[in-house]
Amino acid sequence: MTTTTHRHTVAIVGAGAAGLTAAAMLKRTRPDLDIALIDSATYHYYQPAWTLVGGGCYDIGRTRRELRTLIPQGVRHLAERVEQFEPEHNRVVLGNGDAVEYQVLIVAAGLQLDWHKIEGLKETLGKNGVSSNYAYEYAPYTWQCISQLKGGVALFTQPAMPIKCAGAPQKALYLAADHFRRNGLSVQSHFYTPGPAMFSVPFYAQALDKVVAHYGITAHFGHTLVAVDGPRRTATFEVGPDKQRVTQAFDFLHVVPPQSAPDVIKRSPLADASGWMAVDKFTLQSPKYDNVFGFGDCTTTPNSKTAAAVRAQAPVVVTNVLRRLSGSGGEARYDGYASCPLTTSRGKIMLAEFCYDGVVTPSFPLDPRIPRRSYWWLKKHYLPYLYWEQMLRGRPGPDWHAKREFPAQVPTFEP
Ligand SMILES: Cc1cc2nc3c(=O)[nH]c(=O)nc-3n(C[C@H](O)[C@H](O)[C@H](O)COP(=O)(O)OP(=O)(O)OC[C@H]3O[C@@H](n4cnc5c(N)ncnc54)[C@H](O)[C@@H]3O)c2cc1C
């Protein structure tokens, strides 16, 4: 087989939220820069709206666009998968056998959904009342099931961290619970998580406990979903450190799959022992290879894996990549910012924003534990616009997040 070696100043692996934003920002800053963007996907997805799709509030068709229509002008799109990283040789190898040599590499390959790690799940997903907002194909089925449920038991599960949008498993839960409440339906809702609390940041977790109590949801901590029997409608969990198994019958089951770094990263010298791509959590640079940077869901940075984090990380990567290429300029640092718009009811959102170490950093000087209609509007209308029309075109938009203090008392929850 004849293979070709492509040579580019910057190679970007993955044309998702992170890769497209980095390519567009680099081009906007340095129009002459020679960039290759490598991704074999046909479509690009606006994944944050899948929660709304699963809650019956958004059209799934509006979350997908053809990837080729989003490639920034002047950027070379190589529609292939990267099969191997060879950072010692400043090279990646593609699925067709071609190689791409680079001066600087940006790894933005997202994460991998490990559906297969839950026994019986793949066979039953999309039928037998088993759904997941974590895939374009299934998010509409979530709403189909919820809107047809007349009573019974609804289970919502969360896998071990890290996952993308750690709040998404409970967003599905609250939208469903609100629907059951509004329609006077007697559905017992249960939430299962391996973790010890509803959220990793105690400031928000305490407010979410009130949401859980309001809807009469039963939260099961220390529980990991390990098997699903679709035809019999049962879910099996391992509980606690001794992994005792318990089985629960359901009428509806919303599953969030276990997640890990893409296999191509796990088996590469870029990964650390966890399998994720190792980067300095502030500069987003590989500790082993000075000309390699990583951002988005695929890295070891201990922030919440969100598009909001990508929006904050992109200017840091772009600044540090240009600095590396020119040998001059200041270093940029990422503070761990992420945002998680928690859909606590149909029409209201608790906008959880925070940085590294759980520091609460809202964009607005309002108590973020209070769900607001304005934030629903922000999520449903403004953020999709910001994403498609600004961020993916290299304009990350306004950044007002700041450390702010709020009263210790947790506000009452009103849906
Ligand atoms: C249900 C759900 C709800 C969410 N809600 C929110 C929210 O409310 N707010 C928020 O900010 N974020 C939310 N997110 C998270 C957000 O969508 C992700 O954090 C974001 O998309 C990460 O961007 P990324 O570029 O790292 O990965 P992605 O956007 O997933 O893109 C990864 C890209 O890499 C490509 N790729 C993978 N492997 C290779 C390879 N070997 N070679 C070449 N290319 C490769 C893929 O084809 C893909 O195009 C949500 C996600 C889900 C699933």
> Proportion of β residues?
25-35%
Spans where pLDDT lies below 50 across 5 or more residues: none
CATH top level of the largest domain? Alpha Beta
The hetero molecules present are: flavin-adenine dinucleotide
Q: Find the structural class using helix and strand composition.
A: alpha/beta
General description of the model:
Helices cover 25% and strands 25% of the residues. α1 packs across α8. The strands form 6 sheets. Strands 1, 2, 5, 6, 7, 8 and 19 form a 7-stranded mixed beta sheet that branches. The mean pLDDT is 97. It is built from 9 helices and 21 strands. The chain folds into 2 domains: 173 residues, FAD/NAD(P)-binding domain, CATH 3.50.50; 146 residues, 3-Layer(bba) Sandwich (FAD/NAD(P)-binding domain). The protein is globular. The chain starts with a strand and ends in a 25-residue tail after the last helix. With 415 residues, it is an alpha/beta fold. The site of flavin-adenine dinucleotide has 36 residues, from α1, α2, α8 and β20. This is Sulfide:quinone oxidoreductase. Its cofactor is FAD. Keywords: FAD, Flavoprotein, Oxidoreductase, Quinone, Transit peptide.
Search tags:
single chain, 415 residues, alpha/beta, FAD/NAD(P)-binding domain, 2 domains, 5-stranded parallel β-sheet, 21 strands, globular
Q: What's a quick, concise take on this entry?
A:
With 415 residues, the protein is α/β, with parallel strands linked by helices. The chain has 2 domains: 5-111 and 261-326, FAD/NAD(P)-binding domain, CATH 3.50.50; 113-258, FAD/NAD(P)-binding domain (3-Layer(bba) Sandwich), CATH 3.50.50.
